Amino acid sequence: MTKPLRDLADLPDWPRLLWEHEAANYVRESLNTFRGGVGVRWPEPVDAPSGRRRYDRLEIDRAVDALSSLAGGRA
Fold first, then answer.
1. Alpha helical stretches, state H, 1-75
2. The whole model's pTM is what?
3. Which of 5, 22, 45, 68 sits in a 20 to 30 Å window from 61, CA-based?
C-alpha cells in the first residue's frame, strides 16, 4: 500500500521546483484546469537537475502577480 500524498496546503514552505500536481495545488486549481492554463496563464515547466520536468514556483508567483493588481493587471 502506498502512503497517501500529504496535503500540500499545510506546508509553510513550498519547494522551489514543483511537480505538476503540486503546482496545481499551489494555485488552487484542479490538475486539468492547471494543465489547460500552462503556456497561457501559467509558465511552462523547466528541466530539473533530475531530468524530470518541474514548475518553478517563482515563475508561478510572477504569473499570479501578472493576474493581480500587484502588476497592474485585473484583480
1. 20-26, 31-37, 57-67
2. 0.74
3. 5
